[in-house]
């Protein structure tokens, strides 16, 4: 990518991926993102817990699929800004030959992708597809150049489907991707839910800043995305409660973000 055709990165309006990075304790954000992030924490103090726990869920889910199930291919759609313990780092630390395809159409994410690609293992593959998840057929076509669609794939939608234009569109996106992968593949997904008034308010206020709208949905709607799949224990649950370490059991409580890992029969 040359400077002439490099994507425009706006620093005058808050950016959801950069704000999320700030909430997670990362360093890739601008002052406007910090201001928006701090304002968000005032509205919903639990948002930083959600951000941190979302990464803990990713680590546990990818470790489970790679280490216990033997999945060696991941399609991480709407990946966001790379921080610590990204999908490829977790998978390839267990199975160096793992192949990971990240998908995003965000200019900032794609800029960071160039640096991220240098950290893959020699045996494995880590690559990015520049695509919007509203066009899953395009994603599948591009991913076939890297992944073997005759072998199981871990499909990941990590806290991004609230940006879908509608619930019907959300279901279509997930269904299209899952229809393309073989039996034995897995869906790993979490998303924010509307059972916290503070979180719903935070999302509305973010939209008012000019950011891409994010719509928290009822738990039942998120749970329905897994219909027809075989849920892995402990099933559909809060981010904080999916296979939490024994030391945390009893100390953790649900938050307004729900998740599951499920197998395609």
Automatic annotation (TrEMBL):
Keyword Hydrolase on entry: no
Molecular functions (GO terms): methyltransferase activity
Gene3D superfamilies the record matches: Vaccinia Virus protein VP39
Xref: InterPro entries: SAM-dependent_MTases_sf, SAM_dep_MeTrfase_SAV2177_type
NADP in keyword set: no
Pfam families: Methyltransf_19
Gene Ontology BP annotations: methylation
Keywords, ordered alphabetically: Methyltransferase, Transferase
SUPFAM superfamilies per the UniProt record, alphabetical: S-adenosyl-L-methionine-dependent methyltransferases
Protein's name in the database: SAM-dependent methyltransferase
Organism from which the protein derives: Nocardia bovistercoris
């Amino acid at each position: 990518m040359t400077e002439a055709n490099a994507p425009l990165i706006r620093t005058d309006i808050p950016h959801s991926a950069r704000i999320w990075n700030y909430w997670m304790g990362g360093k890739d954000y601008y002052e406007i993102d910090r201001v928006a992030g701090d304002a968000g924490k005032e509205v919903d103090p639990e948002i930083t817990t959600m951000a941190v726990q979302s990464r803990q869920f990713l680590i546990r889910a990818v470790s489970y699929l790679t280490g216990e199930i033997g999945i060696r291919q991941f399609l991480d759609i709407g990946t966001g800004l790379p921080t610590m313990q990204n999908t490829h780092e977790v998978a390839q630390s267990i199975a160096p030959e793992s192949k990971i395809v990240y998908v995003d159409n965000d200019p900032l994410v794609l800029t960071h992708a160039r640096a991220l690609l240098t950290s893959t293992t020699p045996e494995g593959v880590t690559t990015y597809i520049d695509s919007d998840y509203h066009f899953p057929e395009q994603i599948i076509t591009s991913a076939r150049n890297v992944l073997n669609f005759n072998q199981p794939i871990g499909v990941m939608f990590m806290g991004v489907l609230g940006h879908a234009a509608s619930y019907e569109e959300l279901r279509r996106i997930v269904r299209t991707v899952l229809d393309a992968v073989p039996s034995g593949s897995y869906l790993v997904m979490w998303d924010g839910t509307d059972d916290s008034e503070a979180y719903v308010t935070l999302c509305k206020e973010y939209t008012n800043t000019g950011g891409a709208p994010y719509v928290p949905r009822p738990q039942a709607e998120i749970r329905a995305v897994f219909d027809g799949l075989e849920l892995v224990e402990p099933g559909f649950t809060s981010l904080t409660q999916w296979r939490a370490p024994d030391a945390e059991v009893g100390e953790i409580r649900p938050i307004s973000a729900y998740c599951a890992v499920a197998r395609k029969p």
